[in-house]
């Protein structure tokens, strides 16, 4: 894509792929808002993944994989990247040529997930000590903007 349109994904992109991306991302929320659920989408996605594995089609999917050592990410976190999926699962991650801005966004996503995972582990231990392990599993609901548990206020 970048060879055909070097500005793809940027605000200067004459084809406005940035806007299309936002529409695609928000479409699921729109469906949920209108219907109350996403219907068959998740089931169809899982069926497609299973079919690719069972039939060894070696098709391309965006699935969560460890991104450690990709594009300078040092932490062991999982993000969705394009991969080839076959009878042995993920055979390889498809190499992408990313701009510096895209690499920075990817690193920021990895850092956010890492921080959330660390917070969750710490919070789970605190909650287990406070209310017991048997109650801790269904306990935690977090605010995205301020990661604080709604139920106990533990940071």
From TrEMBL:
Pfam families listed in its UniProt record: Ldh_1_C
Domain of life: Eukaryota
Gene Ontology molecular function, alphabetical: L-lactate dehydrogenase (NAD+) activity
This protein's name: Lactate/malate dehydrogenase C-terminal domain-containing protein
Gene Ontology terms describing biological process: lactate metabolic process
InterPro entries linked: Lactate/malate_DH_C (IPR022383), Lactate_DH/Glyco_Ohase_4_C (IPR015955)
Lactate/malate dehydrogenase C-terminal domain mapped to chain residues: 15-114
């Amino acid at each position: 894509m970048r060879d055909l349109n070097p500005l793809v994904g940027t605000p200067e992109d004459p084809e406005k792929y940035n806007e299309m991306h936002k529409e695609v991302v928000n479409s699921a929320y729109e469906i949920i808002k209108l219907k109350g659920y996403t219907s068959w989408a998740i089931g169809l996605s899982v069926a497609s993944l299973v079919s690719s594995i069972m039939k060894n089609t070696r098709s391309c999917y965006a699935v969560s994989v460890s991104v450690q050592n990709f594009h300078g990410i040092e932490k062991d976190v999982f993000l969705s990247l394009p991969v080839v999926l076959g009878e042995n699962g993920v055979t390889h991650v498809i190499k992408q040529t990313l701009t510096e801005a895209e690499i920075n966004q990817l690193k920021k996503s990895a850092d956010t997930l890492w921080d959330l995972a660390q917070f969750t582990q710490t919070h789970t231990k605190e909650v287990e000590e406070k209310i017991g392990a048997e109650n801790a599993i269904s306990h935690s609901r977090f605010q995205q903007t301020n990661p604080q548990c709604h139920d106990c206020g533990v940071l």
